[in-house]
Write a structure and sequence with these properties.
By secondary structure, the protein is α/β, with parallel strands linked by helices. 33% of the residues lie in helices and 21% in strands. The protein contains 6 helices and 7 strands. It has helices at 20-34, 38-47, 60-65, 81-85, 104-114, 125-129, and strands spanning 35-36, 52-56, 72-73, 92-96, 118-122, 141-147, 150-156. A 5-stranded parallel beta sheet has the order 1-5-4-2-3. Strands 6-7 form a two-stranded antiparallel sheet. The longest helix is centred in the N-terminal third of the chain and has 15 residues, at 20-34. The termini are far apart.
């Protein structure tokens, strides 16, 4: 019995894979030059790497509720020429939003880049950061209490 499936049936191969040199150029010049992830940001914060400024691009209220350690609140909607004029042009700004379904980090990164600043977006945002690392803010902590096999969330104030 022969396998009659072809690459025409493939969702992955519907578009041919890039030439390795083109793929390398894309990943180095585009993806890795413009994106970082929570692991790399955490590493650099812990190591005290200078010249990196972490920007929470969500609303000020969202920042107050919960944010990454050492981050600064700069909502993407508030990025103006006057604000940009106060920023250090030698720093690299790492922006983030809530998570993959939030484009606040992308909007802030675009605005800062348009102003001539070096920037990277932290993929995964706050959502993926807090899967591994702690956050700060006024968000109540949640614990899970089991009663008769059912979980009931209980809110505790810090």
């Amino acid at each position: 019995m022969t396998d009659e499936r072809t690459t025409a049936d493939s969702r992955v191969l519907a578009f041919p894979a890039a030439d390795p040199a083109d793929a390398l150029a894309y990943f180095r010049r585009v993806r890795l030059s413009c994106e970082t992830d929570p692991f790399d940001v955490h590493h650099d914060l812990a190591a005290g790497v200078p010249g990196i400024v972490l920007i929470d691009a969500r609303t000020a209220d969202a920042y107050r509720a919960e944010h990454l350690p050492e981050s600064r609140s700069l909502p993407h909607a508030d990025i103006t020429e006057d604000v940009v004029a106060m920023l250090d042009r030698d720093s690299v700004y790492v922006t983030y939003g809530w998570g993959p379904a939030c484009n606040a980090g992308t909007r802030a990164a675009a605005a800062l880049a348009a102003a001539g600043l070096r920037v990277k977006e932290m993929i995964g945002g706050l959502e993926y950061w807090k899967r591994v690392y702690s956050t700060e803010g006024d968000l109540p902590e949640q614990i899970l209490v089991t009663r008769s096999g059912e979980g009931h969330p209980i809110t505790l104030q810090r």
